Every structure is written in C-alpha cells, then in structure tokens.
Amino acid sequence: MSRIGKIPTTVFALFIIAFPWVAHKIPSIEHYADIMIFAGIYCLMTMGLSLLMGYAGQISIGHAAFYGIGAYTSAILTVQFGLNPWPCIIVGMVISAVVAVVVGAPSLKLRGHYLAMATLAFGIIVYIIFNEEAAWTGGPDGMTGIPGLSLFGFEFDSVEKYYYLVWGFVFAVFIFTVNIIQSGIGRALRAIHVSEPAASAMGVDISRFKIMVFVYSAVLASLAGSLYAHYLNFINPSTFDLFFSIKLLIMIALGGMYNIWGAIIGAVLITFLSYEWLHYFEEYEVIVYGAILLLVTIFFPKGLVGVPGIVKGWFRE
Amino acid sequence: METITLSGQLFQYLITGITVGSVYAMVAVGFNIIYNVTEIINFAQGEFVMLGGLIMVFFHVVAGLPLIMAFPATVILVTLVGILLDRLAIRPIRRPSVLTLIIATIAASILIKGAAMFIWGKDPYDLPAFSGRNPITVFGAVIQPQYLWVIGFLIIIVIVLSIFFDRTIIGKAMSACADNPNAASLVGINVKQMILLSFALSAAIGAVAGITVTPISLMEYDRGAMLAVKGFGAAILGGLGSFPGAILGGLIMGSIESFGAGVISSGYKDAFALIVLLIVLFFRPSGILGSIEISKIKRF
Hints:
The complex is a heterodimer.
Chain A: H1 6-25, H2 32-55, H3 63-81, H4 85-109, H5 114-132, H6 134-137, E1 143-144, E2 150-151, E3 154-155, H7 159-181, H8 184-194, H9 196-201, H10 206-232, E4 234-235, H11 242-255, H12 260-277, H13 285-299, H14 307-316
Helix pairs in contact in A: 1-7, 2-7, 2-10, 2-11, 2-12, 3-4, 3-5, 3-10, 4-5, 4-10, 11-12, 11-13
Chain B: H1 6-38, H2 45-62, H3 67-90, H4 98-120, E1 136-138, E2 141-143, H5 145-167, H6 169-179, H7 181-186, H8 191-217, H9 224-238, H10 243-264, H11 269-283, H12 292-297
Antiparallel strand pairs in B: 1-2
C-alpha cells in the first residue's frame, strides 16, 4: 500500500459531502443516497478486512458474525433493556473485540488456512445461535422496533442525515486506518507481508500484530452492524449468514486487497450491484458473484485499483 | 408397543453417527488427497458431494438408468467437474499464494452452487435406497440398509486408496509430489498431472459420498458448504494429511454430532461438529494422528 496523498483524500471528502446533493438533483438516481448508506456500512468492514488480508495475509470467512454481534447487541440492549443506543454500540464493539481475541489468537499463531476455517466455523456457529436463542434474538423472525440514533437531541431521522452520519464514520475510520498504515505498526505489517521469517528475525512479534489487525477488523464490523440495526430498525439472522462473509471477500478482491481505496471501491461497487444492477438475475446473482471473484483472482489479483498499473505496463512494452 | 431402552437409544445414536461420520470421512479423505499433493485446502470439496447426489438423481430417477449404470456415470461426470476445477480455477493463477488459492476455490464453490440452483432449483431431492427401506432391528436400534451401504463404500474407498498409494506407480508418484514437488519433478514426475489427478480423485470420492448419502438425508443445492466445513473438521481432528486420521476424525465427528443432537439439543446439531473443530484448532492443531513436525515443514 503506497502513501495516501492529501489530494485524493480531499477529493474523497468532497465526494462524500456532495453526493446526496447531486443525487437529489437527478430523479433517476435519487434513491442512491439510501444505497450509499449501505455501501458506507460495508466500507467500514472492508477497510478493516483489507488490512487483515492485504497486510497480515490472513483471510476471514466469518466477519458476518462480528457484524451480527454488533447488530444484535445494539438491538437486544435497546429493545429489551431500553438503553441509550450509543453505549450499546460501544458494548457491542467490546464484545466483538473479546470474541475476536478468543477466536483469532489460537488460529493466528498457526500458519496458513487455519484462520479461514476457524472463522468459517465460528461464523456458522454464531448464525445458528441467532436462529436458536429466540428468547433473546427473536429467532428466524428477527427483531423489530430498534430505535434510530440521535445525538444531543439531534435526530438522524432522514436518509440524508443518516448518510452523513455513516460516511462521517467511514471518513474517520479511513483517516485512522491510513494513520495506522503509515505508522510503525504499518511498517511492521508491511514487513510481515514481505517475509514473515525476516520480520520475525528483526524482532517483529508477528502473531501479536496479526491479532491486533484481526481485532481491529472485528470491532469495525461490530460498529457497522450497530449502524445497520439502528438504520433499518429491524434485523433477522439471514443478513448475517455465510454468504455475507463471502460477499465481503468479493468486495475486497474486486477492489483490490493491497490498497485501502480498493476496499472502498469494492464495497461501493458490490453494494450497487446487489441493490440496484443485478435485480435482473434475482437469486441467480450468486453465479455472477462467483464469476466476478474467480475472474478477478485469475486476471486481476490486485483488483480494480491494480488495473491502471497493468495498463501502464502494456504501454511500456 | 415396543419399549425403547436407553442402551438401544444410545446404540441408535452410535449407528447414525458412524453413518454420517462415514460421509464426513469421505469428504476428509478428499481434502487430504488434494492437500497432500498441492497443500491447497479445496473449499469446493463439499460441492462434489452435492453434485454426486443431484446428478445421481438425474441419471437414476429422471433418466431411469439402472443403479449399476447410473452410479459410474455420476462418478465420471463429477470427476470431470473436479478436472475442470483444476484446469479453470487453480492452474490459471499465475502467482499462487495461500490467499489466492483459497479465494479461487471459494469462488468455484459458489459458482458450482449457483449452477446447481439454476439446474435443480431449491427443492431437496430424494433417491431410492439401494436395497429397499425395510429397516433391520439390532439391539433395539433401527438400521436402514442404506446405512450399511454408506459404511461399506467407505471401507471400499479405504482399501482401493491404500492399494493405489502403496502398490501402483502413479500412486507412489503422487505421494512423492506430496513429499517434495521439486524433487519429484527432477525424477521425471509430471507434477501438474499429479495435481490434476488429485482433483479428479477427490471429486470421485466426493461423488460416491453424495450418491450413497442422498437416500438417507436427501440432497439440495446448498448442502456443500456445511459438508465441506464438517469434512475439514474431521480432517483436522484426525490430523491434516493423514488418511487413517481422516477416517477416525470423520467417525468421531459424526458420533459427536449424533449424540449431541440426540442428547443435548437438536437445534444445535450443526454447531457441535464446528465447536469440536474450533476446540481442536485451539488445543491440538496437529490433530489426533498428525505430527507437529510435519505441519511445520509444510509451506502453508
């Protein structure tokens, strides 16, 4: 991951601010602000995951579980105990962090496929719990009546307001993540990515850094889940199934896992594909996703953000 | 009315567990064959089982072929899918790493699953049992004849595979690739062909698992992922790469699931095997019969 310049960051910020205005002016894409809220929620997750995949070289096929833990913690604490949503979001993030350490620490000490399988199994177990513990989670029917968010009396009660809330979070996390990448932690992670034995010989505690990144990505997924629950006011287990974890993977692979912009581009593209452009395929969209994932893996291993580099390479020849 | 004794009940769980476990064992053996030659964990392994069941339904029920012809036809067709998987998804990757290979097999698995949904729809399909559905009662447990077919085919697979790996040149060449691909290619073994063969072989075993289990548990398009995870759990439990381990792991996994569902809670049936997988990963990642030394020299 190269340095993130001031100019692209400013353009990104301006784009976030201007998008609802522009969308509002054009009738055919008026509802895009609503879709962008979901895109933003997914961006929160993909930024953490791209750090995990692009840097630590580890793959998680269970992040839907952390997304679900965030959503259900918020839902249960606000609906059944009547608490203020904000502390519930924090509680969800803390629970996710603890769970991430428990699940991640043993498998990240091993090399290779173990985290993938551990997270896959973990994700399915959590999904089963959401379905079975009906007294808490409402079972397969889910939970309704989750309150919206407000801050100091200001209600985030319209699409535009919630859009700015979500993308405000996205931008803050973006800046924070970029800072991580450009700090000593980022250098250690880059060293791990180039060569684990070399990094280890230089005194980098590999498994500790991997666990940190895994926990960071889990906490972000939990935050995203809470934001999702408070926006839709309704959740049910099917949102947090195995296929959603794979969809996150597709977002990152499509955008490019070695670059934080890739995480954002991939999340936005796949969100628009699934909410808007793939209606024609209905449930067969899964074939399209499979094809995208396979083609990107074979032909564009660096994702869409790697395409300019490939094109440049052609011209040099 | 017959009284159900406790011991009969427990024996029932054990028989069911061993039957289901035989299927997991077959999936685990399939994992191991590919893992030993390529060090890839093939996430699409469960899709072979699903395809085996559904293609068999097509040949046997829809096309009306007799069992003796439909069975090999199904195995051959699924084997072709395995070969295509290697040729279209694994081999084209230019700079393979664990990450890209995992992603490629995941992509292939959702493609296969999507194609199956396209062809067969979302309904589960039934297959007539090989030798009728008149249960045999032994020690107070009810045994479907199909249970014996599943267990029998596991035994056949074990025998055929051990002859193949120990007694034939191709089998020995495959084992050589597993030990050291560079040295194997130096002595003239075509490693790429061995990789192809490993995919073909494990697809064939997956197909057998799917064909034999469908009369018991039906088959539908989205069964693959769960079978893959449990089969992987069995492989890890026994020690990744070890064939006796895969069999043992599969049988233990099936029994845990059967007793867990019967004694503790049926809603959590699928969770028991996965919890065992996590516990093994955390406390003894080398499994029962695996060795830590071997897992250290593996690249992935």
